[in-house]
Amino acid sequence: MVEHEQERPLASEAHQISIPNDTVTQRSTEEETERKRLRRRCVQCCGCTSAVLVILGVTLLILFLTVFKVKDPKINLNNVTIRGLEGVDPRNLVPSTNLTLIAEVSVKNPNIASFRYKNATTEIYYENVLIGEAQIPKGNAKARKTIQMTVTANFLLEKIIRVSQLPADLTAGTLALDTKTSIRGRVEIIEIVKKTVGVKLNCTSTVVIADQTVRDQKCTKSVKF
């Protein structure tokens, strides 16, 4: 028997999908456009964030230089009165004479936060001799408010009568007094700005004994942070 070689069928060729070039180009263009759009949006977002931060920084700087800036508390000596001279011959003062000086002091706080101050003192001098001292109790001057205080000091007569200028001043009916007030406190603005402030007020004034008026008052102030 003659064997016939059977023809084997050729393997079928793999199916190939052909994508048109114009479709590939269109897809690449769309992807590139999308990338550019995202990049532009990112740049815009970063620009907006930077602008907000700059505006916020400038605003805070302006606030710290203006509103949040700690301003000097102002202390004023408004009036001085001497009590105890009624029925007493000023030229014949003795150490047992009870003379009292009453000073009206005001503290003005120009800040947007309270000024809390500690116990303070007012010293009274006559011809550079300490003749009295008044205590100012601790307190709180509210924001942009002025508080009035009355401080009292007893004269140290044993020191006054030793001043050689006293007879001439009493004859003239005037006393030249120096007062020194020192107050130390703290200003705290929304727990961000905290400043300790020390204020000293030195005043010279002439007290007219007859009517208890004060004239020729001159004050100098120093502030220390």
From TrEMBL:
It is found in: Membrane. It comes from the Eukaryota. Residues 1-33 are annotated as: Disordered. Residues 105-204 form the Late embryogenesis abundant protein LEA-2 subgroup domain. Signal peptide: none annotated. GO terms for biological process: defense response to other organism. This is Late embryogenesis abundant protein LEA-2 subgroup domain-containing protein. The keyword Cell inner membrane does not apply. The chain crosses the membrane at residues 45-68. Keywords: Membrane, Transmembrane, Transmembrane helix. PANTHER family: LATE EMBRYOGENESIS ABUNDANT (LEA) HYDROXYPROLINE-RICH GLYCOPROTEIN FAMILY, LATE EMBRYOGENESIS ABUNDANT PROTEIN, LEA_2 SUBGROUP. GO terms for cellular component: membrane. It holds the Pfam family LEA_2. It is a single-pass membrane protein. Residues 1-10 have a biased composition (Basic and acidic residues). Gene3D superfamilies: 2.60.40.1820.
